[in-house]
Amino acid sequence: MKLNKYIYLLAVPLALSACKTGKNYVRPQTALPGQFSTSAAAASGKSIANIAYKDFFTEPALRQLIDSAVLRNFDLAFAIKNIESARLSLKQANASLFPDLNLQVNAATNRSSDNSINGMSAAMFAGSKHIEDYNVSLGLSWEADIWGKIGRQKEAARNTYLQTEAAARAVQTQVVANVAQGFFNLLMLDAQLEIAHHNVILNDSTLMVIRLQKEAGQVNSLAVQQAEAQRLSAALLVPQLEQTIAIQENALRTLAGALPSKIERKVSLTAFTVPEHLTTGIPADILAIRPDVKAAELAVMAANARVGATQANMYPSLNITASGGINAFKASNWFNIPGSLFGTVAGGLTQPIFQRRQLKTQFEIAKVEKEKSVIEFKRSVVNAVTEVTDALVKLEKLKKQRELEESRVQTLKQAIKNADMLFKNGMANYLEIITAQSNVLQSELNLMDIERQQLSAMVDLYRSLGGGWN
Questions:
Q1: CA end-to-end span of the chain, whole Å?
Q2: Which of 101, 239, 246, 435 falls between 20 and 30 A from 147, CA-CA?
Q3: Is 261 a residue whose pLDDT tops 50?
Q4: What are phi and psi of 282, to 5 degrees?
Q5: Which domains, from first to last, does the chain contain?
Q6: Distance, CA of 101 to CA of 33 (rounded, Å)
Q7: Helix 430-464 with 356-424: angle, nearest 10 deg
Q8: CA dihedral sign of residues 229, 230, 233, 234
Q9: CA separation for the pair 403, 388 (Å, rounded)
Q10: Residue 179 near residue 263, CB atoms below 8 Å
């Protein structure tokens, strides 16, 4: 009969533990389109986000820079520390499911007044003026998870841990994209510097011809002065570009967690091309692939679990305590088994009364925090789809811009050849040759910038789809 009673007492908390508070997580509805609304999107096949960055960026110098940044970037290192902190919190939450177990070893002696009741009792029953007490015990304390509070706390900690992992991956995707875009920008500046040097040589040649014409009396000193000013303008571009190159190199080194220094590179911007078809998959893929969207969803899941935990705080808690060991008032009898053995078991329900208003407020706050996290999740989804669409639009329109700019460069180069020939034969004035040279310079610089923008848009698409963390 006694055994049945104990079984019943143990079965009650186990049965109540099935009564979890709060609702299980359901993903918030998001109005995702069936496909990306641009002709540049290629939904067939897996998204390029599934390609590891080492396979997407295959140029050795670029890949080495990215590898270095992934290992040493400060933002990424900080995000990894957040993961470690969340992992420790998860271990703590897991441990709360188990009883607390404590070992106590005590030895005490007490000498009471001869005129006190304790003193007279000691003299009468123990035959001594002092009482000794020796105790070794194990104490156990356990809160039965009858409302699922501890389970919800563990669930929240687990989702928070996974959220920090996803957040670190999001940081890595941004770091990879920043390094790639910085590298392409550096190559564009290299190309523009080469154009600037060539333009200085061209202006030197023009200035020499105009000076010869002045000596022959064909032009006046104004023509020479304007040609000299044009040559100085072309020369000024060289140190400006060299300054920008040095700053860009330093920025890339900073991304890699290194001190400023030159970046070795043996490749030109024209060595890179944007593939004709970059598969995007469908918008729904973003929910599973893109790390910042996944982190936002995990934040909702953690907030949902905290709602259940705060709700359970308002209900009674069942605490079970037990202790046992050996106890004696003489050291000689301390380990006299079984005479020195003792044990106690107790259980109790605790129902908050005066704190109910406070606990209710915490519950309402948790619900509001969950609603806020849902809004943040929906915003991250919309932002992700927008970023992908923007990148696709850029790729589509920049392709057309490049075609037009290439045609413009060829036309202007032919124009400068014609102007130079006419100028040397006295059939064109110096202003026409200066204008033609200026137009070619600007057009060639623009073409390099458009090529850089195309590569940058490709990187944007890769990142916005969720690529770069694997």
A1: 62
A2: 101
A3: yes
A4: -110, 160
A5: 28-97+146-315+355-464 (1.20.1600.10), 101-144+317-350 (2.20.200.10)
A6: 55
A7: 150
A8: negative
A9: 23
A10: no
